[in-house]
Amino acid sequence: MAFIVLRKLPGAEVQGVVSTRPDTSVVFTPTVIPTPAVVVIAAKLWGLVAGVVRGAVRHPVSVALVAALGLVAWLLGWRAAAGGVLGAGALLGAWAGYRPESFMRWVGWQAVAWWRWLWVYRRHWGAALAVSGLTHAVRGRTYVPDLVRVKSDATNDRVHVKLLAGQEDGAFAERSANLAHAFGAVSCRVGTPRPGWVVLTFPRHDRLVRPIPARPIPLLPRVDSVDVGVTEDGRPYRLQIHGTHVLLAGATGAGKGSWLWGVVRGLLPAAAKGEALFWACDPKRMELSYGRPLFDRYAATGEECAELLEAAVRAMQERADRYAGLRRDHVPTPDEPLIVVLVDELAFLSAYQTDRSVKARVGAALATLLTQGRAVGVSVVAALQDPRKEVVGIRNLFPHRVALRLDEPDQVDLVLGDGARDRGAAAELIPHDRVRGAGIGYVRVETSPEPVRVRAGHVTDQDIRHMVLAWSPDIREAV
Ligand SMILES: Nc1ncnc2c1ncn2[C@@H]1O[C@H](COP(=O)(O)OP(=O)(O)OP(=O)(O)O)[C@@H](O)[C@H]1O
To answer: One Pfam family of this protein, by short name (predicted)?
Structure first.
């Protein structure tokens, strides 16, 4: 409208023309009302002031720096301003050299975030969201969700987006693959920090691309959770054990073994103190047999596994009878240790089990343990290749679940719950290659609706041999 007022367009004004485009319905040309220049200039000025204020609120440090520099140049001349810039640069350089972590925290990552906001996100925002189908047209005007802030750290960019009124976070979750491609990232995870907002997490570097050595055996006994690996942010990941059950789902070769052994490794000091016991079901006889001396009970055949699980149910019920009316939770002690029931391949005992009576006994014992074991100190940690198999019935009884590499995208939601795949848990895309992919899995954490990618420390055969030599009960007793 402003141009129509300020500039006389050539040719005659065409009025009341109805135009059509092949991809839209009828579009009517709006009536042009000549506006006084002063109104248009005032509107432009208002837009400018609003833009400056918005910029100052969103980027206070950058705006303050530019303003301070302008003030110095105005009051003292450009030489003083240039000297100030050089001096500030030297100070920042010294800070970065002596205290790189605090420098990155307060200055470095802010600068990276600002650059990424400007160069990667802001530049393509409207077009990328329009092509992804995340903009909305209302009465001929197109509205784009607001790109409010970008925060960066060593691994990820977190893009804070204010949704359009009436838009829902699921729309972004469904388009996470489009967004990842649009902004050149390997993936995009969608979180909802509060109503009306989404946070899109774009990883810049993959910290998990190389295997991680087995996590150190803790110095002090601890049973609540175990440090089994590292998250993509580089933080240790503690898997909850006490008061819960854990399901590890992953195709063959996905690295379930390193998670199972990571649990054993982290609980060794507690086991040495008598506060944790390992009962192992190893129907494949491949995985757990290697560290057999570490286990207080070990079962391999279907019959033996059924007996072991029923013994766990008896121990659980005996405790429940004693606790009834007296206490509501379990505290591990040498008299009342946490019993960790490890099951290497759940489907061997359920879906592939040919002996019907064994299958029924295992199913009944597992269902009882999973529904009643948590409060009295019996935790099940089970591995499973195919989450579609007959374990469907008990799958949801595991409060903590890990989706390692899976064969099909549909399997992800079966393991992690509805919507996990859309929110970025692309477990079917974890590389098959052992070096780049084994041991990587997606987990859900209580603090965030977005799945978190974790790589378990690689517990090698040599680590297991060392664990057996240093920590098995027989050897400790002999010493
Ligand atoms: N965290 C890890 N980091 C790197 N390599 C790993 C990791 N975990 C396992 N591996 C390697 O990947 C291969 C497969 O691991 P593993 O046997 O644990 O897989 P799995 O899921 O138990 O497979 P299956 O169900 O067939 O037994 C092994 O060679 C192992 O050494």
So the answer is: FtsK_SpoIIIE
pLDDT at 174: 86
Distance in Å, CA 261 to ligand 1 centroid: 11
pLDDT band at 155 (very low <50, low <70, confident <90, very high): confident
Check which CATH number belongs to the domain holding 429 and give it: 3.40.50.300
Q: What is the pTM of this model?
A: 0.75
Residue 230 confidence class, pLDDT cut points 50, 70, 90 = very high
The answer to whether residues 68 and 194 belong to one domain is: no
Q: How far is CA 236 from CA 210, 218, 243, 245, 302, in A?
A: 16, 13, 20, 20, 36
The pLDDT-based confidence of 379 (bands split at 50, 70, 90) is very high
Please tell me the distance from the alpha carbon of residue 29 to that of residue 41, in angstroms, as a whole number.
Answer: 24
Specify the range with the lowest mean pLDDT, choosing from 22-36, 315-329, 356-370: 22-36
Tokens for 233, please give them. 């942010």
Whole-number Å distance between alpha carbons of 393 and 465: 36
Number of the ligand 1 atom closest to the C-alpha atom of 439: 1
- Verify that 319 and 446 share a domain, yes or no: yes
Q: Burial code of 392-429, b = ≥16 C-beta within 10 A, e = fewer?
A: eebbebbebbbbbbbbeeebbbbbbbebbbbbbbbbbe
Question: Was 127 annotated as part of a binding site?
Answer: no
Rg (CA), the chain: 30
333 lines ligand 1 (CB under 6 A): no
Q: What is the pLDDT of residue 298?
A: 93
Q: In CATH, what number is assigned to the domain containing residue 137?
A: 3.30.980.40
Domain count for the chain: 3
Tokens of 62: 């950058």
Residue 269 lies in a domain: yes
* Residue 188 belongs to domain spanning: 109-205
Whether residue 464 has its Cβ less than 6 Å from ligand 1: no
431 and 326 assigned to the same domain = yes
Structure tokens at 378: 């019996």
Q: Determine if ligand 1 sits within 6 Å of the CB of residue 441.
A: no
Q: 281: part of which helix (H) or strand (E)?
A: strand 276-281
Is residue 383 in a domain? yes
Q: DSSP letter for 458, please.
A: B
155 is in an annotated binding site: no
Question: Is the CB of residue 120 below 6 angstroms from any atom belonging to ligand 1?
Answer: no
Q: Please give the pLDDT value at position 255.
A: 94
